[in-house]
Design brief:
Layout lengths: L1 E2 L6 E2 L4 E3 L7 E5 H26 L1 H14 L3 H8 L10
Antiparallel strand pairs: 1-2, 3-4
């Protein structure tokens, strides 16, 4: 048993990712808390990109937002789908 430093719940070691740098061989934060931290990071990055397009490229933002709604995707996924790669960047 180990106590998570973030949520203070006492959990089995199987609820922690393995990390050999720690004395007990597991991270100090449980998997569930670690996932929440990662999701916040992803959401923050997506928010920054969305705000950038909304502020600096409003016409493009509107087009991609409409595509996202029609295809039931997030703005970021619709944006990625909209990117066209030039022939010179194709991987052989």
């Amino acid at each position: 048993m180990k106590t998570c430093e973030k949520c203070n719940r006492e959990l089995e070691l199987s609820e922690y990712e393995i990390d050999k740098r720690h004395q007990d061989g597991h991270k100090d934060v449980c998997i569930q808390c670690q996932q929440q931290v990662e999701n916040k990071k992803i959401n923050t990055i997506e928010d920054k990109i969305t705000k950038y397009f909304k502020k600096n490229h409003i016409d493009l933002y509107k087009q991609i937002q409409i595509k996202a709604i029609i295809e039931d995707k997030s703005f970021i996924n619709a944006l990625v789908d909209s990117i066209e790669v030039n022939d010179k960047y194709k991987i052989k």
